Amino acid sequence: MRALGVGLIGTGYMGKCHALAWNAVAPVFGDVRRPKLAMLCEVDEALAAQRAGEFGFAESTADWKALIAHPEVDVVSITTPNAFHAQMAIAALKAGKHVWCEKPMATSLADAEAMLVAAKAAGTVAALGYNYIQNPAIRLAQRLIADGTIGPVNHVRVEMDEDFMADAGALFSWKSEAASGHGALDDFGVHAFSLIKVLIGEVEAVMADMARPYAERPLAAGGTRAVETHDIATLLLRLSSGASGLVALNRSAWGRKGRIALQVFGAKGTIAYDQERMNEIELYTADGDSDVQGFRRILTAPAHAPYDRFIPAPGHGLGFNELKIIECRELLRAIAGEPAHLLDFEAGLRIERTVDAAARSFREGRWTTI
Amino acid sequence: MRALGVGLIGTGYMGKCHALAWNAVAPVFGDVRRPKLAMLCEVDEALAAQRAGEFGFAESTADWKALIAHPEVDVVSITTPNAFHAQMAIAALKAGKHVWCEKPMATSLADAEAMLVAAKAAGTVAALGYNYIQNPAIRLAQRLIADGTIGPVNHVRVEMDEDFMADAGALFSWKSEAASGHGALDDFGVHAFSLIKVLIGEVEAVMADMARPYAERPLAAGGTRAVETHDIATLLLRLSSGASGLVALNRSAWGRKGRIALQVFGAKGTIAYDQERMNEIELYTADGDSDVQGFRRILTAPAHAPYDRFIPAPGHGLGFNELKIIECRELLRAIAGEPAHLLDFEAGLRIERTVDAAARSFREGRWTTI
Amino acid sequence: MRALGVGLIGTGYMGKCHALAWNAVAPVFGDVRRPKLAMLCEVDEALAAQRAGEFGFAESTADWKALIAHPEVDVVSITTPNAFHAQMAIAALKAGKHVWCEKPMATSLADAEAMLVAAKAAGTVAALGYNYIQNPAIRLAQRLIADGTIGPVNHVRVEMDEDFMADAGALFSWKSEAASGHGALDDFGVHAFSLIKVLIGEVEAVMADMARPYAERPLAAGGTRAVETHDIATLLLRLSSGASGLVALNRSAWGRKGRIALQVFGAKGTIAYDQERMNEIELYTADGDSDVQGFRRILTAPAHAPYDRFIPAPGHGLGFNELKIIECRELLRAIAGEPAHLLDFEAGLRIERTVDAAARSFREGRWTTI
Amino acid sequence: MRALGVGLIGTGYMGKCHALAWNAVAPVFGDVRRPKLAMLCEVDEALAAQRAGEFGFAESTADWKALIAHPEVDVVSITTPNAFHAQMAIAALKAGKHVWCEKPMATSLADAEAMLVAAKAAGTVAALGYNYIQNPAIRLAQRLIADGTIGPVNHVRVEMDEDFMADAGALFSWKSEAASGHGALDDFGVHAFSLIKVLIGEVEAVMADMARPYAERPLAAGGTRAVETHDIATLLLRLSSGASGLVALNRSAWGRKGRIALQVFGAKGTIAYDQERMNEIELYTADGDSDVQGFRRILTAPAHAPYDRFIPAPGHGLGFNELKIIECRELLRAIAGEPAHLLDFEAGLRIERTVDAAARSFREGRWTTI
């Protein structure tokens, strides 16, 4: 059987991240056949050729449809701007290819729904790039919750904060246009929901507020323009399990660079985590002598699969890019028909619906069910 | 002029804390006359006498009315269970005494309103024991916000979590009875609101959710009883300043012992704080070279008044009880007619109204203005 | 029986700290009779009178010998500059008084030896103010070591760092004169040795290095003067138990304000501590499932006596000054003939001898036994 | 010109790490030609073939001499056990190949010296795998020291601790045999010295102590065997710059997994770092208002080259393996004749000599110069 053929569309932030993963998945895991990097697509043809050389792809193109049609391409990595996800994913699925699409699924609920329809029709693998769920630390949290270590979860809090929109003096950009979405709610919210999903389960109802730290932003040509998105969103959640939840999102949070802070409270203990320290998890359990109880800082280690595939020594640390390598391994598992730890288009659509319900709850000032 | 005469009602957790403050305020501050500890009241007469000896009070009684009537008592510390605050405070005010009452003001909004009426009529000092606002670290935060170091505040988050209700197997207690209040909302919420008040300003509207981690609790006699309060509360806030806010309260949060975590986001920086590390504050400012920006951990020091009155060396640390000594000094300031850093009954009533509005917002599922 | 009569010499940093402790010991502990604050001594008579009023002492004086001779003074708190400790302590002991003397014992080994001779002759209590050992967190560490939780200790590291000598531009002061001692070695080393003593045991041999971050310092009148002390000291230790140790001392350590960082390594676990976060201790034990092992942050709580005497709720935090209240309670225990957790003059002398041996090891460039 | 041809000897911990780096260096950096992975060597021929497939090497062999002789191999990665470094490196150098050898250089000073002779004779690049110095956080520290941000360095402390030898019940292994070296001194010390070298400069004199936490260890066959190495080492240092230093090494430190804790004290500030949190650096500077000074936690970001080549967003985090990719890029720079941030065999020999001097200082109980 020939090696799995890979087509990659996009060579930016996430494009490079996919490329690194496709190069590393076989050396890291050792239990998969080294895929064939068949074709790379980038809008600029010269850049496509250059990146193909760097990334190790055999061919390059500026025509994404050609990539999808390429007979050696079995799986398509889609890392283009969100607005292109739907058409590319649907085309690839229609061509019978597997699809690995960056999150969020699409820029409209209708597009996301169409993507799911296409995925169901194709019967191939259609997975989303929710990489944070791949962290061995998060998987440890997932296991500790699943095995009852902290008891039934009754409350969860997720904060996601960065500061790329924090500078009031920064020029008005597309991130402040309504066309880009709601703002922090979709930009960050989808990550929060992906983590809640794998750790605890489904969100049933939501009540959101949104805010604009800066009403307007300067234009390059002088003057200002009113900001149309909301860089801050806060959400109250009720989960199907009965747990209560809270999500706080802020992309104008000075000093926060990649914070995704989780707190999961259970009847027997608590788990805390911060993506800025992604190789640690904090666990408190109400076991044993009460005078020596405390939050324990667990460093990820070979005991926390698949950390062991990267490094045989504990506490040495994985990086953000390496989560995508793990995700890639899961994708290969799914393609091989094995159970995989991935969010597919069905799970992704549920996340998009949660975002949509949150936006409605804000407009209408009342709880909204998903 | 004779020394200020002190009457103290209650010798429990907060009663002892007041007693320590009354003993220490002159030695620590040195700029106030040592007050006369005139009379101590405790329901059990023998215990009252014993504690009077320990605490250094000249006389003791089991009759709180006698204490209020005592001619040498100029100021009354009220540290009894919340249900007694109103009648004692009103009686003391009517007798022309100053009142230093532990928070929360009362167990009903009507009582709190009556207390304010009495305070206005008396014209004496009527102050509440919101001790967390006295921390030099919090005062530093207050100054950094006031002087524009972090720019206009656009978002605030406050979490208050402890675990004294976290044990699902603990017997049903009065804390789970509706008569005790809403649960975490009033038990913890008043602290959160006091901090928001001094740091940022007034809450204008609130939308709350409340949850019960355990639907029922065991009874000593066997069987169980349905829990009537909510150990978890989550609140979305809109402040008069236009800032958005969020409060999360959990008294069943395993592992959290005295957590009051603040995050205040401004247009030029961020402040973070956790009461469990009450001698530190974290400050991020967007000044200077971006490649060396980071949250700085500032340890409280003599530069942060009135830390200097306690210890001449930085980073040596104050304790929880010492906040009450600072509060006591502020009370003396108020009694002397000087500007004081205290929450009076008017500010306290606003906090009670915020709690009440939150409870209504939960029942009605919609935003409620204060 | 009349109350214990207290005489306090000195009203500076430690004088105030003792005064606060004498005021608070009965209210906090409740199981001791409130001492009588008989007489306060300060070199300036007017200041002595003023402080006596603030601190609650009945009388004041500028003559320390009068204080020692005062018939109502049973115990003498000595908080004067180190050079005066010996004569005052010896005089008080000769007068049959109990002595509570701030560390270090004296400025020469001969003086310290004379103090011990006097203490033995007097038969009264002669205790030193090594307050850090009184922290409930340190006592917890002590218990965890004693009960074998971390197994036999094989290695210990103590760092003590502050930055009061860090400013190279600060004027030459007495701290840089040879008459003040060795520098960091005695200024800080005594604290390190007191902690090693109570946690692990005796130091048997030492090998030290010392360094001057700044060779000279400016004089107010212009020009500079050569620094005679060493603001940095580093020590290798061998303990009687066979454990190896290391002490690092730096009083010119920018950013460190009250750091005393301990790491105690045992055959079954590790304990870590930092005085700048004095209400926490970190414990790692090699028990249970290895994939959930980690350093746990234990917040001090009522379970860690005598924290419970201060606050009935966990994680609320004691302050530096409150350690002296605990020490005062131990002193009262010793005076009552009960076992007490204190370092007496015998233990203190051993610490002074360790400092002396370290200084010799530095001069001679070889290991020195104590 | 053809692509650089790579030969890799060894496929264990570090072999895999090199393989990942060779696969990723072109995709990550984009400014280098993708190297040709020519030949892989592993003692077991079948394993060699399997790993070659996974790692993307064109050919495989069990004969390392064949690999060195391979005409397409321009550079040889040596990742075998330390005892083989010398003969392989010397052979490769004699064949005119570039050498990238894992640290430490060799198991004897004589071997290391011979390696340097061979490197000088060959004139090719001979670099060592001191990967920790490649961390953007460490490079930031290096720059902050070099540009005077913390002023002249006067004191440095380095701790390196792991717990792989902490279990007293673990069977006697080769790590406890004298043939493996001194113990922690060489196992960990070389890392400490590499960091001191790039951050501050040369070590001039050393005084070491070494200790055995466990005198003997159990044998599989029953009974015990005396431990010949020292799992603990502590060192006092004097640097050529006049700074004082301290190194503490413990490979039986329960709970420490990959700790390399640095503290660098200067006349104007302090830098602190812990490898367990490798994406952070702490900086204190004595600039600006003293009441807002504190250690700031700087998260690595695109501003800290070459972080930007991996991730365009700050605070997202690199992993341990990615340091080797950076090292690989530096190696390519050196091969291209450009200035490179690498420790070559000359620097490596100095490190070996420091280890040797430390061992002598321990045996002789006195300071030893390097």
Automatic annotation (TrEMBL), chains A, B, C, D:
Gene3D superfamilies annotated for this entry? Answer: Dihydrodipicolinate Reductase, domain 2 (3.30.360.10), NAD(P)-binding Rossmann-like Domain (3.40.50.720)
Q: Which InterPro entries match?
A: Gfo/Idh/MocA-like_OxRdtase_N, Gfo/Idh/MocA_oxidrdct_glycsds, GFO_IDH_MocA-like_dom, NAD(P)-bd_dom_sf
Q: Which residues form the GFO/IDH/MocA-like oxidoreductase domain?
A: 139-271
Query: Domain named Gfo/Idh/MocA-like oxidoreductase N-terminal: which ranges?
Result: 5-129
Q: Which Pfam families match?
A: GFO_IDH_MocA (PF01408), GFO_IDH_MocA_C3 (PF22725)
The domain of life for this entry's organism is Bacteria
Q: Which of UniProt's keywords are assigned here?
A: Oxidoreductase
Establish whether keyword Metal-binding is in the entry. no
Give this protein's Gene Ontology molecular function annotations.
nucleotide binding; oxidoreductase activity
Q: What name does this protein carry?
A: Predicted dehydrogenase
Organism classification, top ranks?
Bacteria, Pseudomonadati, Pseudomonadota, Alphaproteobacteria, Hyphomicrobiales
